[in-house]
Every structure is written in structure tokens, then in C-alpha cells.
User: Which sequence fits this backbone?
């Protein structure tokens, strides 16, 4: 029923065998002991006394409270529902509660489950492809033209994987007006929110500005803690979260007790953790941008603004799949060809959130020579 998840299949094949990852979508992670060192006295006590039983299906109340307070101004803990990673939140929404009669508009290219799950449910879908010629920005006219009487949801992801572009506050405000006029729900995958270039202007989370919006967040990306498998959906409408919780009873039921406490400590210390991640991301982004400028006969790109991935155009006549294959075989450096995102242009995804990135990029430089 589900189409092969090309990206996860590609990563399963290479992620733990290719020595130099240059396409990862998550940034530098942290060691457990370094996170624990940030804990308050009360949090340390919680950590020492974790009861390894089932946890509450909605997520630990203190965790939901700190997520609301730190990340969604104006929302409270009951407007947050936790999941096992962002992927479970996507599944419960875009497979769990959709009806086959729903029409969806999905912005592509995208993380595959955002498109494939509603397809697997039998929904009708209009895709709107971001264009490099429009700097990969959302096209509001195309969205207006795609709306039908049966349109139930718009699904998008900003900061965007794989292009690294963001939605501007004015575009988001206009988009919400359009959706509101038609009573359309908005599912926005915001897993990269607040990570990225230091001069980025951030739109508010959609859940804070539109009552029919779901904001998807996770520990994996901006916090760099993918192994915790803790994500959440923020939404003003508690009855929508209740519906999602009922689907979650069929998937993970509840989160890992251990991961909840580590997440609680990390979200409390979000400023410290984001600062650390963003220093690495900004340093690498500058290094990579200079590299692309000096190798313009090979590469070009629209410089990313959010997250730690970007889409680079390979300007040679060789196919980008062949180029990526030669690179991993010869240097052990892994890029991700655009074909993984069903793109037919000669682009590859680069990930620049890891500490070892400058050294890995130097390997690519050697390869080009
Ligand atoms: C845009 C986007 N959404 C969701 C996910 C899934 O996140 P998680 O692995 O935390 O479930 C990813 C993972 O790469 C992603 O890039």
C-alpha cells in the first residue's frame, strides 16, 4: 500500500556505511552527559527517578508546558500533542484522520511522507512544485488556482527540506487569508524552525496565527536530538488534537519516558542549544557558499535561509546521480541526488549542520581536482 520511501531507503543503505555524510538533514547532536549538565536540580531529580512505565498518551504535562511556553507564544500545554518523532505526527494526521474524499494541495518537492501518505489513503492531490527560477518561494497564485470545493488541507514544509527556503511573514499572512476564506486546514511541517542563517526573518508558527493550522515540531532538527524520537503537533483546536491522539493509540500509544525527560531539559535550555547549533550551521553555510561561488562552473544554488540543507545545481552534463555515485565510491562522501525527491533537474541535496562539514567539503574539493 505504501510506496517505497526512497529517502529513508537511500539513508538506510548509506548512512552507516559511507564515512563522510554531506547530505544529512539533522545537525550536530549532543552527548547525553552534556544535556544532563544543563538540567536544573528538579530536572536531575526527575531523571534519577524516572518510572519506566507507560507515559501519558498526550506527552508529559511538564514537557508540553515547556514546549508551549518556549516555542508557541499564546498557546498552552493542552494545545500540544506529543508523538514519537515528527514522522508519527505526519502519519496520524495525513493518513490517520484524512478521508479518501478529501482533496489536498501539497507543496513539492517534499519529505516523502507528506505526499505519499495522503496518496495511500486515496485522497486526491494537487501538487505545486517550488521553482528554482522563483528562488523556491511559495507561489500564492498557484495555490489560489488549485483550490476546489473539496479542498480540505494545504500541506507545506517551511523551512523547507530540501531547498532550505523559508516563508516570509507577509506571504504567510496572505496565505492564511486565502485558506481562511475557504475553510481549509493548514498542515505546516516546521521541524527546522529557528535553525538557519543568522539574518533570517522568521514567520510565526502557523499554529499561533491560524485556528485551523497544525505546526509540526520535533527534537530531531533544530535541537539536533533525532535519537530521542520526540515530536509534537501544536494546534489551537483541542478537538483536532483529540482526534490525532485517538490515532496515536494505534501507533506508539505514548512516548518513551526517558526521552521525555531529556526533551524537557533541552527545550527548557532552547536558547543555549539553538545558539550552539546555529553557530555550526552559520559557519558551515558561509564556507559552503564561498565554495559554490569559487566552483561556479560546477555548481550554483539559491542560498538557504532556514534549516541545514540546501539544493545545489550540478552544472555539468553528467547526470547528478552518476556524480553522486562516483563521489561516494571514490571519497566516501555522501550527497543526495534530487531523484530521491522525484526531481528531474540536475540538483543534489547538501546537508551542512555537522561539525565535521568543512573537512568533508575539502574531500569534495580534492575529488573535483
Ligand atoms: C521535513 C521533514 N519532516 C519530517 C521529518 C521526520 O522527522 P523525524 O525523523 O524526527 O520523525 C524529516 C526528517 O528528515 C524531515 O526532513
Assistant:
Amino acid at each position: 500500500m505504501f510506496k517505497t520511501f526512497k529517502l529513508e531507503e537511500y539513508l538506510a543503505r548509506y548512512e552507516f556505511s559511507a564515512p563522510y555524510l554531506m547530505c544529512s538533514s539533522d545537525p550536530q547532536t549532543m552527548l547525553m552527559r552534556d544535556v544532563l549538565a544543563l538540567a536544573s536540580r528538579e530536572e536531575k531529580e526527575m531523571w534519577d527517578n524516572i518510572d519506566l512505565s507507560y507515559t501519558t498518551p498526550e506527552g508529559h504535562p511538564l514537557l508540553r508546558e515547556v514546549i508551549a511556553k518556549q516555542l508557541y507564544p499564546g498557546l498552552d500545554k493542552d494545545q500540544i500533542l506529543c508523538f514519537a518523532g515528527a514522522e508519527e505526527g505526519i502519519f496520524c494526521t495525513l493518513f490517520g484522520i484524512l478521508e479518501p474524499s478529501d482533496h489536498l494541495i501539497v507543496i513539492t518537492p517534499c519529505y516523502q511522507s507528506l505526499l505519499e501518505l495522503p496518496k495511500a489513503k486515496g485522497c486526491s492531490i494537487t501538487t505545486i512544485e517550488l521553482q528554482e527560477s522563483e528562488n523556491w518561494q511559495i507561489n500564492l497564485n498557484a495555490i489560489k488556482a488549485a483550490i476546489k470545493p473539496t479542498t480540505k488541507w494545504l500541506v507545506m514544509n517551511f523551512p523547507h527540506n530540501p531547498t532550505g527556503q523559508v516563508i516570509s511573514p507577509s506571504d504567510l499572512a496572505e496565505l492564511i487569508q486565502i485558506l481562511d476564506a475557504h475553510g481549509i486546514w493548514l498542515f505546516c511541517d516546521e521541524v527546522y524552525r529557528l535553525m538557519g542563517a543568522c539574518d533570517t526573518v522568521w514567520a510565526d508558527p502557523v499554529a499561533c496565527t491560524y485556528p485551523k493550522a497544525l505546526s509540526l515540531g520535533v527534537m530531531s532538527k533544530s535541537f539536533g536530538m533525532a535519537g530521542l524520537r520526540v515530536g509534537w503537533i501544536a494546534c489551537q483546536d483541542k478537538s483536532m488534537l483529540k482526534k490525532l491522539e485517538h490515532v496515536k493509540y494505534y501507533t506508539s500509544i505514548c512516548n518513551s519516558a526517558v526521552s521525555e525527560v531529556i526533551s524537557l531539559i533541552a527545550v527548557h535550555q532552547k536558547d543555549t542549544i539553538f545558539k550552539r547549533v546555529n553557530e555550526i550551521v552559520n559557519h558551515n553555510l558561509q564556507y559552503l557558499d564561498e565554495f559554490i561561488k569559487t566552483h561556479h562552473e560546477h555548481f550554483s544554488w539559491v542560498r538557504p535561509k532556514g534549516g541545514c540543507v540546501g539544493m545545489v545545481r550540478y552544472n555539468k552534463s553528467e547526470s547528478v546521480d552518476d556524480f553522486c555515485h562516483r563521489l561516494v565510491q571514490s571519497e566516501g562522501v555522501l550527497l543526495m541526488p534530487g531523484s530521491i525527491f522525484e526531481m528531474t533537474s540536475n540538483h543534489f541535496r547538501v546537508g551542512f549542520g555537522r561539525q565535521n562539514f568543512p573537512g568533508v567539503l575539502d574531500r569534495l574539493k580534492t575529488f573535483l581536482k
